Amino acid sequence: MAVLRIARMGNPVLLEPSQPVADPGAPEIRKLAQDMQDTIEDIGASGLAAPQVFVPKRVVVYRMIASRIPPGSGLQPRPWTVMVNPVIKPKSSRQRDVWERCLSVPGLHGKVPRYTDITMTYKDLEGKTVTHDATSSWAALLQHECDHLDGVLYPMRMKDLSLLAYNEEPGPLAKEIRKGDKSIDPLFVDLVERWPGKDKL
Questions:
Q1: Catalytic residue among 145, 168, 169, 193
Q2: How many helices and strands in the chain, by DSSP H and E?
Q3: Which among 6, 21, 67, 192 has the fewest CB atoms less than 10 Å away?
């Protein structure tokens, strides 16, 4: 098991486009994927892109656990998945603003426009091509992680920086939850529930 150090916003590695992987089954790629999984598990996160651990390769590792799925979304938990050289194709121009956090932007959250329906294509560690559709917060997660492969952090996609906030002061998020939005990731609902200022809005 290897828990890797996370690059934080400001490090040049996070702003550089990553290089394609020539051999998805190469031993060094398998080891990288396992170390990334170990790192996610240790931190308790959902996904990680190789540039976030200082490796400029087009590799993403992710999972979706039940506790992070919004009630009523219709989404199911997803097992550990390794995506090598992933490509995203939006199925339509429709986008929805989604609350996001990032291991490389610690302590903050913000609202980011994401395509609601995408087709995902990638190679697995056996070199097989995998293609599937993804919707809702699953699609948003995949877009977030794949952005890292192109040197893009979520604040760079935000349209309204007034919605970028510290996790300890989730005022804009609290207002939205108070309006009754049930599609918000339970992680963000928990941020508001633990915020002493939520009843003063």
A1: 145
A2: 4, 8
A3: 67
Taking CA atoms, 141 is separated from 40, 117, 128, 169, 185, in Å, by 14, 12, 22, 23, 11
What is the chain's alpha carbon radius of gyration, rounded to the nearest angstrom? 17
Residue 173 — left, alpha, or beta (φ > 0 → left; ψ -120 to 50 → alpha)?
alpha
**Catalytic status, residue 169:** no
Q: Which domains does the chain have, with CATH numbers?
A: 12-195 (3.90.45.10)
pTM, two decimal places: 0.95
Residue 11 token pair? 């490090």
Q: What is the pLDDT of residues 150-178, one digit of tens each?
A: 999 999 999 999 999 999 999 999 999 99
E-only strand ranges, 41-200: 47-49, 59-64, 78-90, 95-100, 108-115, 117-123, 129-135, 165-166
